[in-house]
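QA checklist item 7 of 12: single-chain prediction sanity check.
[x] sequence parsed
[x] length recorded as 325
[x] structure emitted
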Amino acid sequence: MKNILIIRLSSLGDILLTTPVIRSLKKLLPDCNIDYLTKIENKETLEFNPHLRKVYIFREETSLEELTAGGYDLVIDLQNSMKSIKLTSGVEKKIRFNKSNVKKFLLVNFKLNLLENFPQIPDRYALSIKRSGYLPGFELDNEGLEMKFPVQTVPLDPRNDYIAIAPGSKHFTKRWPEYHFTVLCRMILDSGAIPVLIGGTSDIKICSAIQESEPGVINLCSENELFRISSILAQCKAAVTCDSGLMHLSCAVKTPVLVIFGSTVREFGFTPYKNKSIVIENDSLSCRPCSHIGKSYCPQKHFKCLTDIQPADVYESLSRLVYED
């Protein structure tokens, strides 16, 4: 094969989870040109990926003719949405990712768990590729997620221990409460380490509120500057995140990560991939998961999936993550 196109449109974490596939394809077919179709907001995520020839930006008017003009021998549709299905409907050789939507629906709505012990998302991508028969010998390597970025001018003093704190997430039911993050930051400061707040535009308010309560933290949350955030994360001893893209970015820059799950669960496959990590979640609730992507409100009105997770427990797990082998 000479030319392969990969399609994944969604968000930061979703794109990072495809990077093991990109790299492993290039190892299998070193002379093959690999292109990628995604949304404009994901361009930076792939801009310096050494295994890609070109990153195309998806537009609503993107057509099949544009895709086939690239002379692709194979299209790997890891999005598998109505948009990508329509876009690739006339492509002869294509692989579509099996999203297991029925199993996710049964788990969310009827708590029937057919996803127990299901592989993580990159491994499920690989399974779809192997089952297609188009790429005999394809296997994922063991190097995990990948994020390449230029050198950034955000140096942190190497004499200090920094803990990245990423309190944001797109959906309310994925966000550990601000007051819990504030208490955790106080505990980190008391230990002699320094919390560093990170995030994008939508996280500025919560990060500012945490810093106002705990002036000893460093607030480096700003606009959506992916390379800057990557550089900061790479200099930290560990990161504490919600179920968000910054959890996956921590894995991609090889920073140990503690992730706090709320309305989502491990079975969906979006846990930290091939990186030192700890996942904290409230397993005592029968209402979890209430969504596979998160909600803007708690359907049960109590939000115990996250409010019941105490800062002291998170701090104890963080200490193990940072200081124990």
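[x] summary fact logged: The chain has two domains: 3-132, 162-323.
[ ] second reviewer sign-off
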